Amino acid sequence: MTDTYARTASTWRNWAGNVTARPARVASPASVDELAEVLRRASEDGLTVKPVGTGHSFTATAATDGVLVRPDLLTGIRDIDRAAMTVTVEAGTPLKRLNAALAREGLSLTNMGDIMEQTVAGATSTGTHGTGRDSASISAQIRALELVTADGTVLHCSESEHPDVFAAARIGLGALGVVTAITFAVEPVFLLTAREEPMTFDRVTSDFDQLVAENEHFEFYWFPHTGNCNTKRNNRSAGPPAPPGRISGWIDDELLSNGIFQVACSVGRAVPGTIPSIARLSSRALSARTYTDIPYKVFTSPRRVRFVEMEYALPREAAVEALRELKAMVDRSPLRISFPVEVRTAPADDIALSTASGRESAYIAVHLYRGTPHQAYFTAVERIMTGYEGRPHWGKIHTREARHLAEVYPRFGEFTAVRDRLDPDRLFANAYLRRVLGD
Fold first, then answer.
1. What distances in angstroms separate CA 371 from CA 179, 259, 265, one per listed residue?
2. Are 180 and 100 in contact (CB under 8 A)?
3. Can you give the pLDDT of all 439 residues of the chain as single tens digits?
4. Residues 253, 274: Cα–Cα separation, whole Å
5. Using CA of residue 392, residue 396, residue 399, residue 400, what is the dihedral sign?
6. For residue 236, how far is the Cα from the chain centroid?
7. Is the distance from CB of 387 to CB of 364 less than 8 angstroms?
């Protein structure tokens, strides 16, 4: 057993700083056996247990006053199976390290979200996703996982082993046990060509279905208080590689998207009346660019400006109507919104608590600069999204409770039945899980 088990914890904070917790102690197990011992001792002491990743969730899904399990020592690739085209990786491995390691092996995930700071277990357990016409979330790329349950049992789950647990645990919210390893499907590394282009709100919404159908990965950002959007289309390419130039890439991805945007957000938070003018200037400053690179360098971007976020998944056919309603709400309200609204899509999948479970989905995400009062904006957005059978992202701010979630997730009862069987005494419970799953 590592000597970190009994260490008294200081206050834990998530990336955005909107969630804090003071666990009784922190454990950093270095093996599955050590983790099982952590669970046994916590149970004996009457403490709950929560695994934590890098804190990129905006909800309190990982908060605990019991034992906080850090995965710092559960990292690295266990196995690459080139015949099966899978990679098995320890749960605490950051996505950025996995992506770099796969690239060195000439391999890649098929799709991913737009940041890669999270651990693989944290990202998948909360349903992290990117955008894709045919390729789904990171969790949908899981082919097997290793789960340590409340009684210390190690379950190896896949479509053929414990399939009911596998259907739930790919997005398990930390409610079923502690994920210690994940096997992902991979493919030979390929090239993506990204085409970024400004476009009006009216054109994007009118052509939305066509833009989704014609591109493997399509997303766009609408700038509130304007009629302007920025679109991004990612499609596979025969090459050759043509990454952004060092200087131009730094200007677009660091200076404009992080440095100047940070200043603009700070000014907007201090003087909200300046936000519409800043938004108009920012959206007009956008220019088209095209570049080609390996997948993770196209899918992901640095995100250094900290924010809070709400995101809802809607039936894809409802996306445009909901977005137009959101725009009308902002236009007639006194709200001043400094962050763009992000829109992405995903195909249906078969994971019990996936936001895309059983239906093609579109995601509408709203953000506000950290420290900006967000309740009025997020409440108004949530009211719109729930009117379209919206499902909240598990790792992003929302107010939904189990009763509502059971109505919008057809397989909700299937998940809670697995939870009742694997964790009847609620070793892995916390306030967030009691709200969203019931008790």
1. 33, 18, 10
2. no
3. 333 334 445 899 999 999 999 999 999 999 999 999 999 999 999 999 999 999 999 999 999 999 999 999 999 999 999 999 999 999 999 999 999 999 999 999 999 999 999 999 999 999 999 999 999 999 999 999 999 999 999 999 999 999 999 999 999 999 999 999 999 999 999 999 999 999 999 999 999 999 999 999 999 999 999 999 999 999 999 999 999 877 666 556 655 666 777 777 788 888 988 988 888 877 777 789 999 999 999 999 878 789 999 999 999 999 999 999 999 999 999 999 999 999 999 999 999 999 999 999 999 999 999 999 999 999 999 999 999 999 999 999 999 999 999 999 999 999 999 999 999 999 999 999 999 999 8
4. 24
5. positive
6. 23
7. no
Contact status, residue 301 vs residue 253, Cβ threshold 8 Å: yes
Taking a C-beta distance cutoff of 8 angstroms, is the pair 345, 133 a contact? yes
Residue 285 tokens, joined: 């400053």
User: How is residue 400 written in tokens?
Assistant: 């939904």
| Cα 68 from Cα 100, distance rounded (Å) | 28
Secondary structure E strands in 28-132 = 49-51, 67-69, 77-81, 86-90, 107-108
In the block, residue with structure tokens 């195909």: 347
Q: Check residue 273 and report its DSSP letter.
A: G
Q: CA angle, 89 as apex, 3 and 129 as ends, to 5°?
A: 115
